[in-house]
TrEMBL record:
Boundaries of every Arabinosyltransferas concanavalin like domain copy: 53-192
Domain Arabinofuranosyltransferase central: 199-652
Keyword field: Cell membrane, Cell wall biogenesis/degradation, Glycosyltransferase, Membrane, Transferase, Transmembrane, Transmembrane helix
Function description: Arabinosyl transferase responsible for the polymerization of arabinose into the arabinan of arabinogalactan.
Protein name listed in UniProt: Arabinosyltransferase
TM stretches of this protein: 31-49, 203-221, 312-334, 391-407, 413-430, 437-457, 504-521, 533-552, 558-578, 590-610, 639-658, 679-699
Length: 997
């Protein structure tokens, strides 16, 4: 009996006998109908079932003093303020009885529009940037109440409305502040619509749905078994091979030394807050809205991160997924593509194609590896359905496709293999006369609907719809019509999105798709199975189309194609070897070889024009090919490759034309390619392997040449040795810039104007960078003379026409050994770190005037940094805001809380380098930054950070958050309630970010 993996395709007809007469008993088809309908019913009911939602109430009285209540989202569900009429009448004009947003105390904080009640003698109400009105209070004793909800804001006197403003004018709340204690009080209910957990009823519906789904699949399996021999969903197990060990070693080595992705910190920061916050929200933007309905794999990462948050541990799942993807590709996909893939060398070709796709894209915490495995699993199930004429594999394919789509919007590509095989699948369904339409429809729709459980596991339908609306209104998405931007980024030279490692698999596989189609067109297919190969290529092309649905357009998302792309690339290489071409063309392979050589010349030149670039810490120690495109003997390999390709075409084509011009020569169209010309398949494979080796060699070199510096390999080794704190263990902090002031030597004359310099919120002695002049000579510290520590001066204020120069000398009054400009484009205050030249013992600052307008810039006097290990200053478990670009490398710090409808107010913030402004979204109301309200309550004090071994580098910035005043900490009253799936607390207001008041 042929296994389904190698079974010949048929038109799907069957000769199953009609059931005998007589009374019918309940068979598997009936069970498929009943259980399929039950699965669908439960899947529909699941999002509408109730969830358990905390109701969080904050109360404040003026006697408590200023209170911090940084809500997230910024507006409460409802708010109520009470104050006596006498307090309003007797207050001095302009007295603030209540503010929910403090006056701006830090210029770096963006404002929010809160509630402001001003007395004397009438009560003026302003909320959400809108003047609600003024109320004259009666002379008698009474109580004024101000309420604000999603539909209206009202002022009531003894319960009687006297002023009403329709619409949603709920104020933003960062706290409660008043000029006087007049007995006023505040009560508000925080918006906790997303902080929900699954209720017992919803959990029961989910259990029934899963049980019904399993029953449906069993019933379909019994139907298949009754109609024909058993069908296996996976290939026959095989013993491990040498190539399997090689792929495993490569993946494990890459796991140890390989790069981070640009979003590893983003995802790590989100999932690590799951245990404390109670749900997975977007802790960096979009008002902390949950990632649902595309987020179930985050729920797996969350408990994984509780074991360890080290980079080594957090990247293990993607490595395991890589092993799973390879097993699916080598054990289930390739054997289905024809007898040509039984050759001994084909697994090695597939391994190279797989590694060229997987390594540059799919190591890390992003969803691409999950989607790549899911899409390949769907392809396997679809091919089993077609080969075995069975319904169960199709149901499994639909189930996998839905689960993969629930990972990320790009997961929709998992439906591509089903669409690619739609014709044989429809033939299969029509031929199954043992299954009527209703059991088929119910069973397949049940499998399709079941992934709803992953999308709404602990969220209600209304909450998910509101999350989607918030994301759409705040923005950040790119429309499908701008899909070309992804390919433009792929061809950008100076951006890691266009790195050589990303160009190679994408461009080569685009060519391979066309080559694979040509290989199976017509007859003489050289051992390739036409149907499966065509479906594979169509699935790959449809996947490219499906990528247009992704809301962002980054080249990183090409990683979802790793499984399908590796299969297509393998098919093309196998089909375009010399022997396969001669079989395919009956010896007339010249024109195909010339066409393929021309295509490879163009694609290869574009690939080799890229640089070996990587994001963040992975790009700290670039190779020569990271600084410049690959070259040879001073020439660009890109140009050399193109020239070589053109010369090959000219020589081979010219030779063929010359021979054809002979009186007895064969026509050019009937000529075969010369044996000395490499087959296009081997050229493409060689290029892919060369680029792959370049990437691996670059990271290996960095790990070996910088053993004491921070690399991912050093991080992994430290984790195994018991230090999982990552980059933090390599950082030093200057806690007191004044402590390292250098001592003066020689004459103490200062001709430059003296001024106080701002060093991260501290004032230290300095000079004005204006008008000209010099400072005294300062003796260098021994660590500065040896080059271990830099000479540091901090610039603050606005630059003007003058320039600042540091002069180094062997002693006071001696000729300068070097003059270094003290300039930087970074935002002020900014440190300038200079390395003293050999032989220097003293340094001074020189101000030189210019012709432009003067500025207000001030430079601190030269100092040597007195450093404290960051791990000592912020011990393990310290709560801090970990900005998303850096969060992945700080596994020992605890992300700041976002729970009970409020954002935390931690003491520390770890930010990216000054050249990276991307973390600003977390503190900007425009982007729905969750920490925009806490930012209004503090001032930031920057503590300079130094990287061990690279003292002139400041890879991250460390800020201490200092409360602008003493705040009362309010303990909320939290009760649980059940909220049905359609229940809504109104819309979350996003327009407040554009309203100031």
């Amino acid at each position: 009996m042929l296994s389904p993996a190698h079974a010949p395709e048929t038109d799907g007809t069957t000769t199953d006998p009609e059931p005998p007469g007589g009374p019918r008993r309940i068979g598997p088809a009936h069970w498929a109908l009943v259980l399929g309908l039950l699965t669908i019913l439960c899947a529909v009911a699941f999002p509408l079932a109730p969830v358990t939602q905390p109701q969080t109430t904050y109360t404040w009285d003026a006697v408590d003093g200023p209170a911090a209540i940084p809500l997230m989202p910024y507006q409460p569900t409802s708010l109520q303020v009470t104050v006596g009429c006498g307090a309003v009448r007797t207050a001095a004009p302009g007295t603030t009885l209540l503010r929910t947003v403090p006056p701006r105390t830090d210029p770096g904080a963006e404002p929010l529009a809160g509630l402001e009640l001003t007395a004397g003698p009438a009560l003026t109400v302003r909320s959400a940037g809108v003047d609600v009105g003024t109320v004259d209070v009666p002379a008698a004793d009474c109580t004024v109440t101000v309420t604000s909800g999603v539909t209206a804001t009202q002022v009531l006197v003894d319960g009687r409305p006297v002023l009403t403003a329709e619409g949603d004018l709920r104020p933003a709340v960062a706290g409660a502040f008043a000029d006087v204690d007049a007995g006023q009080s505040l009560s508000l209910v925080a918006d906790t619509r997303w902080e929900t957990t699954i209720s017992p009823l919803k959990a029961a519906i989910g259990v029934v749905c899963l049980a019904a789904l399993v029953g449906t699949l069993i019933a379909l399996a019994r139907c298949d078994r009754a109609a024909r021999p058993p069908v296996r969903l996976v290939a026959t197990p095989r013993r491990p091979r040498v190539v399997d060990a090689a792929v495993t070693l490569v993946l494990l080595g890459w796991w140890w030394i390989g790069p981070v992705t640009v979003d590893d910190g983003y995802i790590a920061g989100i999932v690590r807050g799951r245990a404390a916050d109670g749900f997975i929200g977007n802790g960096y933007r979009w008002l902390n809205a949950p990632e649902a309905p595309f987020s179930w794999f985050y729920e797996l990462y969350a408990p994984w991160s509780e074991v360890s948050a080290s980079t080594l541990w957090m990247r293990l799942p993607s490595t395991l997924l890589g092993l799973g993807c390879w097993l699916l590709l080598s054990r289930a996909v390739l054997p289905r593509l024809g007898v040509a893939f039984r050759r001994r060398g084909v697994p090695w070709i597939a391994a190279a194609a797989f590694a060229s796709w997987w390594l540059p894209f799919n190591l890390g915490m992003r969803p691409e590896p999950w989607v790549a495995v899911g899409a390949l699993a769907v392809l396997v199930a679809v091919e089993r359905a077609v080969a075995g004429r069975a319904v169960l594999p199709l149901a499994v394919a639909l189930l996998f496709a839905g689960a993969t789509t629930a990972v990320t919007p790009g997961g929709i590509i998992a439906y591509a293999p089903i669409l690619a095989a739609v014709l044989p699948l429809v033939r299969l369904l029509r031929a199954r006369r043992d299954l009527h339409v209703l059991p088929l429809v119910a069973g397949l729709l049940g499998a399709t609907a079941a992934p709803v459980l992953l999308m709404f596991a602990d969220q209600s339908l209304a909450a998910v719809l509101e999350s989607v609306r918030v994301r759409r209104e705040i923005g950040g998405d790119v429309p499908w019509s701008q899909e070309y931007e992804r390919y433009a980024l792929l061809l950008t030279v100076d951006n890691f999105q266009g790195a050589i490692g990303r160009r190679a698999p994408v461009l080569l596989t685009l060519l391979a798709a066309a080559a694979a189609v040509w290989s199976v067109a017509g007859r003489n297919r050289a051992g390739l199975a036409a149907g499966p190969v065509r479906r594979l290529v169509v699935a790959f092309v449809l996947s490219l189309v499906c990528l247009t649905a992704t809301p962002t357009k980054w080249t990183q998302q090409f990683g979802v194609l790793a499984g399908l792309g590796a299969a297509v690339l393998t098919v093309a290489v196998v089909g375009w070897t010399t022997s396969a071409l001669r079989v395919r063309t009956r010896g007339r392979s010249l024109l195909p070889v010339l066409a393929a050589t021309a295509a490879l010349a163009a694609a290869g030149s574009l690939i080799l024009a890229g640089r070996d670039l990587w994001p963040y810490v992975s790009g700290w120690y670039p190779t020569e090919w990271g600084l410049h495109p690959p070259g040879l003997v001073g020439r660009s390999l890109s140009s050399l490759w193109l020239v070589a390709g053109v010369l090959t075409i000219v020589v081979v084509g010219g030779t063929a034309v010359w021979r054809a011009a002979a009186p007895s020569g064969p026509p050019v169209t009937r000529a075969g390619a010369p044996r000395r010309v490499p087959a296009p398949g081997w050229i493409a494979l060689g290029l892919a392997v060369a680029v792959l080796l370049l990437q691996v060699a670059g990271f290996t070199r960095s790990a070996l040449e910088h053993p004491g510096a921070y690399t991912l390999a050093a991080d992994a080794a430290a984790t195994v040795a018991g230090d999982p704190c990552g980059l933090q263990s390599h950082l030093l902090v200057e806690t007191d810039p004044g402590a390292g002031q250098l001592t003066t030597v020689g004459p103490l004359t200062t001709t430059a104007p003296t001024a106080a310099a701002d060093v991260g919120g501290r004032l230290v002695p300095g000079i004005a960078v204006a008008g000209g002049g010099v400072t005294p000579w300062f003796a260098l510290d021994p660590a500065q003379r040896s080059g271990d520590l830099p000479v540091v001066t901090t610039l603050s204020g606005t630059p003007g026409d003058a320039t600042l120069v540091a002069e180094f000398a062997a002693g006071p009054g001696q000729p300068p050994l070097a003059r270094q400009d003290v300039t930087t484009d970074a935002a002020r205050p900014a440190d300038v770190r200079l390395v003293a030249p050999a032989g220097a013992a003293v340094v001074r600052l020189v101000v030189e005037t210019g012709d432009g307008p003067p500025g207000t810039e001030v430079a601190s006097l030269p100092r040597v940094p007195r450093l404290t290990p960051m791990a000592t200053l912020l011990p393990r478990g310290t709560s801090a805001i970990l900005d998303w670009p850096v969060a992945f490398t700080f596994g020992c710090l605890q992300p700041a809380l976002l729970r009970d409808g409020s954002a935390g107010l931690p003491e520390w913030r770890v930010a990216p380098a000054a050249t990276d402004p991307s973390a600003g979204i977390t503190y900007s109301p425009t982007y729905g930054g969750p920490f925009a309200a806490p930012r209004l309550l503090v001032t930031e004090q920057r503590l300079p950070v130094y990287l061990a071994g690279e003292p002139v580098s400041e890879p991250v910035r460390l800020y201490r958050w200092v409360a602008a005043q003493d705040f009362t900490t309010l303990a909320p009253v939290v009760t649980d309630r059940d909220a049905w799936g359609w229940h809504s607390d109104g819309r979350v207001r996003t327009a407040s970010a554009r309203t100031t008041g």
